[in-house]
Design a protein that fits this description.
The chain is an alpha+beta fold. It has a domain of about 110 residues: Immunoglobulin-like. Helix content is about 15%, strand content about 30%. The strands form 2 sheets. Strands 2, 4, 5, 6, 8 and 9 form a 6-stranded mixed beta sheet that branches. It has a 3-stranded antiparallel beta sheet with strand order 1-3-7, with no helix packed on it. It is globular, with a radius of gyration of 30 Å. The chain starts with a helix and ends with a strand.
């Protein structure tokens, strides 16, 4: 009986040792190595981009670069080499204006955001009055297609800087 109890105890101890040896602690990142973070949000697939004809361009006609203005600011748009169309019109070589305010050009493979810094003019407007707080501001035009996606290549104006008093 002593032998069988001893065997049973030996098997139990051996089982515990094997179980403990099979589990290793989670590795800790080396110094200077970023720890694994939760899964990042998935990046949306690029949208198909409509072609723009060679030489197509947009520009801000008014206000002039480095102008000192008061709010609301009247912004006049220009489009050359393409047709201005409402946002829901998929006519080739057409689009509508988007005014970028104090932001760089966004991801050109995605629909343009619609917020206070990405203004949409989907009714084929050629000018707008925008309210800006006092200070320096950067404005830039970007033409978007019927899905609000920039063309390929993008039809993007030179940015201008204005000061609102």
């Amino acid at each position: 009986m002593k032998k069988s109890a001893l065997r049973l105890l030996s098997v139990a101890v051996l089982g515990l040792c094997l179980t403990a040896c099979g589990k290793s602690p989670a590795p800790t990142p080396a110094a200077g190595t970023p720890a694994e973070s939760p899964a990042a949000a998935p990046v949306p697939a690029p949208m198909p981009r409509n072609p723009s004809p060679e030489g197509a361009s947009v520009a801000i006609l008014s206000p002039a670069n480095r102008a000192v203005v008061s709010s609301p600011v009247k912004v006049v748009f220009d489009l050359q080499g393409m047709v201005l169309a409402p946002a829901d019109d998929p006519t080739p070589n057409s689009g509508h204006h988007h005014l970028l305010v104090d932001v760089p050009a966004p991801d050109l493979g995605q629909p343009l955001p619609k917020d206070a810094q990405h203004l949409h003019f989907g009714q084929a407007q050629t000018e707008a009055e925008i309210t800006l707080p006092p200070g320096q501001h950067t404005l830039q035009l970007l033409l978007g297609d019927s899905n609000h996606v920039p063309h390929n290549p993008p039809v993007l104006s030179v940015p201008i800087t204005i000061t609102v008093e």
